[in-house]
Amino acid sequence: MELSWTSLLPSLLAIIFAIITRKVLLALIGGIILANVLLFLPSSANIAEGVWLSSWSTLVDPSNMLVWFFTLGIGALFGVLEKGGTFKQFVLKLEQKQWVESKRRARVMTWVLGVIVFIESNVTIMISGTTSRPIYDRLGISREKLAYIVDSTCAAICILIPLNAWGAFNLTLISNQGVEQPLLTFIQSLAFNFYAIFSVLLALIVAWFDWNIGPMRKFEQNAKPNRVSQNTWSDGPNEDVSFGKGTAVVLLSLCSLVVMVPVILLITGNGVLVEGNGTLSVFIAIYIALAIAIVGTLVTGSAGLVKVLKSALLGAWNILPLAIILWLSITLGGLTRDLGTGEFLAAALDGTVSLWMLLPLIFILSAITGFSIGSSWGTFAIMLPLAIPIAMTLGLPAAPFIAAAISGGIFGDHASPISDTTIIASMASGTEHIDHVRTQLPYALLAGVAATIGYAITGTML
């Protein structure tokens, strides 16, 4: 079809509607319907058929089926670990150890926990926050400082070490944009993920030097030692069960997930890591970890079979919205390619917008979207199908454009008061949510400005 500005409307509708309503699912559905209207107008029958066929073909595509099941699998895994009781044992075991006796060591320990536990952002936040909080209270470090450190490391490190659901989610989005060697391209994009890099490094600087800016300074001055810690778990860890066995189950299942992904990548890639099947590798690794978690939970007696299976189903149910977001975003991405959105944007930008401005613009638009809807995953789903076609049509490397879209989503999600990770960081740290948002924002803005400058510099080298 002839290239036209109307090809932008489905994506713009999705972005604007998501920002106004904060309902990513409805925004994506609206974009899909509008895309089919533009493709098949004035035939209402063809429009309805197009909506059905585009959605159904995406849903039943064999490669996408792996994505749906691995997404549900990781929800089931953490459902078993958390609701089955072993994760509570793990947390209580670590809380009872008082290995850190100085403020600097406490802050650095939290940063290290956020870096090494890169399986899933919310799980990482829960581990870092709940294990560090008693130490911070005992030493007189503000819980707002704890919330900042866990929030600034967990989401950022999950995107920089993508052997997790985040990586597979984005890898699927990238693959569906027709990128050659999507895994290699995704790995290359990590070097350009400036906000995530700056966020992790800035958190380390704050942890090491106790650098306080903005409202954080007041909270640190008012922090008193030995404040009573409140337990994050509503039902409390079960102190009667075996701590050692429960800890072993958690560590074994999470370590198997980390180890098996690169192993299966090597197998599927005939010895070459970057040529392996990323989606299949994550799929197999998750279900191996799930099996270990189920068997381990049963062996330790933390929960019976019925409770374990119920926990797995509940965990899968809780993560189902992410699978639906991914499904709809892939559908919308395919339709925008049919409309020639990328080609139109490239033609419109050619000669009117300097190349060095493209990456900062994508980063800022992605950040605004992420801040407004409070979802980095939803932002990735909306922005990657816009950013990648621009790069491909202009004949530019896709990696920096992928990084700008993802990095902006992390920034927006990090700064947003309605982000689930921001809310969970407040909960895990035991601080008032608005206090966490206020104290974190100056640091997030600092890293965001640095990232914008980084993308402007990168753009001059394209």
TrEMBL record:
The membrane topology term of the UniProt record is:
Multi-pass membrane protein
Localization per Swiss-Prot or TrEMBL = Cell membrane
Provide the transmembrane region boundaries: 12-41, 62-81, 108-125, 186-209, 248-268, 280-300, 312-335, 355-374, 386-411, 441-458
Name this protein carries in UniProt: Sodium:proton antiporter
- Entry keyword set: Cell membrane, Membrane, Transmembrane, Transmembrane helix
Q: Which residues form the Na+/H+ antiporter NhaC-like C-terminal domain?
A: 163-459
Which species? Idiomarina seosinensis
> In its keyword annotation, does this UniProt entry include Membrane?
yes
